[in-house]
Specification:
The chain has 398 residues and is mostly helical. It is built from 13 helices and 4 strands. Strand 1 and strand 2 form a beta hairpin. Bound molecules: heme C (HEC) (2 copies).
Length: 398
């Protein structure tokens, strides 16, 4: 036999072996051999397990008593009430659900498609893209610290995380699912049946319910805590955590000239109110009425929820329709004159703290320096590499 034939036979044999192995491992993955790991029985960092198997939030801000003792912009002020008390298993189950495109009608879109951990749980787009490439009108907000929020969506139309998520899950433009189809899908995935049983013991029958799905996802979202930025270290008394320029920026931020802290009130960097700023829409787009619609109130036309500024460095572009690409452009907006971008045919009730602070270029630069000290991703959750549904977790807008 000549050498060519030997090599050829070798190649054919190896191809055969590889194909066989490929088929076998595919089979293993899809069949009962694929085991999801047991759900975590420890709380994520930033939480402490109590005797009832509940994760309770822990942070230095809990040492401070009232929200207003030290005035707006004061350092040692408390945080608003937090959503906590979920079990470690519910939080971990929520993590799988959050990343799983099985929650959408056709298995292509997960929450993480538009809320990507790599992008501060936003997606880097001015307006998010949903089912079949449909372009939404608003940008995806960050999900860090949503456990402290009382209003959800840019226009504040939802009052809880549970209520909020029905929006994307069941809207045609986003995940395009229906409650029945969602239940049907999850109840037909054995791995999920096991995991839900683990996260919700003491139920009567082993059937996944909508309430359990909402609770688990809420539990995961509420675990996304970011309170260890350099700003926080400074606030707790470690003066060296910020350099001189950043401290200058902080002082501009909380001055009654710039008035940022009146609305972006530390330590959450939002007072959770709706404010009309008169932010321009991207070219050619009509004015977004914002809170006017859900609150049925003309005075709220063009009003949006004051967003938290934590991890703001990670979530460009900025504002409800993402029309500012950089933080520098965003802070410039506040000094370009009250109502300067309001369309001629509109009369908006611009908030009284939006005025003409006439900040210098230097002060605007310092504001940006300061905003970047609010970055902290130390409690970043682990992104699951394999999902209970067997679907892939790779579909991100960004
Ligand atoms: C197609 C993209 C997309 C998908 C998928 C998506 N979201 Fe969103 N999300 C957005 C956009 C855009 C907004 C803002 C919409 C608005 O304000 O009208 C938003 C808003 C939110 C908010 C409100 C945050 C705040 O500060 O008000 C939460 C919480 C949230 N999404 C969680 C989720 C969860 C949980 C899922 C999965 C069940 C999900 N999202 C799926 C794009 C998406
Ligand atoms: C009257 C309340 C108010 C004041 C004062 C205010 N803001 Fe805002 N801020 C808002 C609201 C509301 C939005 C969202 C507006 C929108 O999307 O149309 C916002 C958005 C932002 C954003 C973009 C956030 C994001 O997620 O895209 C940044 C950055 C910001 N503000 C920084 C500042 C700075 C710096 C100052 C001081 C110069 C300031 N703000 C003063 C209410 C306020």
């Amino acid at each position: 036999m000549d050498i060519k034939k030997i090599v050829l036979r070798g190649v054919i044999f190896m191809t055969f072996v590889c194909t066989l192995w490929g088929l076998v491992s595919l089979g293993i993955k899809d069949s009962a051999y694929y085991k999801v790991p047991q759900l975590n029985c420890d709380c994520p960092p930033g939480f402490k397990l109590n005797e009832n198997n509940e994760c309770i939030a822990q942070n230095l801000y809990m040492a401070y008593t009232t929200e207003n003792d030290h005035g707006v912009g004061g350092l040692k002020t408390a945080l608003p009430k937090v959503r906590d008390g979920f079990s470690p298993q519910q939080i971990d189950l929520g993590r799988y659900l959050f990343f799983d495109p099985a929650l959408s009608k056709d298995g292509t879109i997960s929450c993480a498609t538009c809320h990507d951990p790599e992008k501060g749980f936003s997606d880097g787009l001015a307006a998010s893209v949903g089912m079949n490439g449909y372009q939404l009108t608003r940008s995806a907000p960050s999900l860090w610290n949503v456990a402290y929020l009382k209003l959800f969506f840019w226009d504040g139309r939802a009052k809880s995380l549970e209520e909020q998520m029905k929006g994307p899950l069941f809207s045609k433009e986003e995940m395009n699912n229906t409650p029945d189809n969602l239940l049907n899908t999850l109840n037909n995935i054995d791995n999920y049946k096991v995991l839900f049983e683990e996260a919700f013991p003491n139920r009567n029958n082993n059937t996944i319910t909508l309430e359990e799905i909402y609770t688990a996802i809420t539990a995961f979202e509420s675990s996304l805590i970011s309170l260890n930025s350099r700003y926080d270290q400074y606030a707790h008394g470690y003066h060296k955590a910020l350099n001189e320029k950043e401290i200058e920026g902080l002082n501009v931020f909380r001055s009654f000239v710039a008035r940022c802290a009146e609305c972006h009130t530390p330590p959450l960097f939002t007072n959770q109110q709706i404010a009309v700023l008169g932010v321009p829409e991207p070219d050619g787009k009509p004015l977004d009425p914002g809170a006017e619609i859900p609150y049925n109130d003309k005075t709220m036309r063009g009003g949006f929820k004051v967003p938290s500024l934590r991890n703001i460095e990670k979530t460009a572009p900025y504002m409800h329709a993402g029309n500012f690409n950089t933080l520098r452009e965003t802070v410039q907006f506040y000094t370009d004159g009250r109502g300067h971008a309001v369309p001629e045919n509109e009369e908006l009730r611009i908030h009284w703290h939006i005025w003409e602070p006439e900040l210098s270029d230097d002060e605007l630069d310092r504001l940006v320096d300061f905003l970047k000290t609010l970055t902290d991703e130390t409690f970043m959750p682990e992104v699951p590499t394999e999902l209970p549904s067997g679907l892939s977790n790779t579909n991100h807008n960004s």
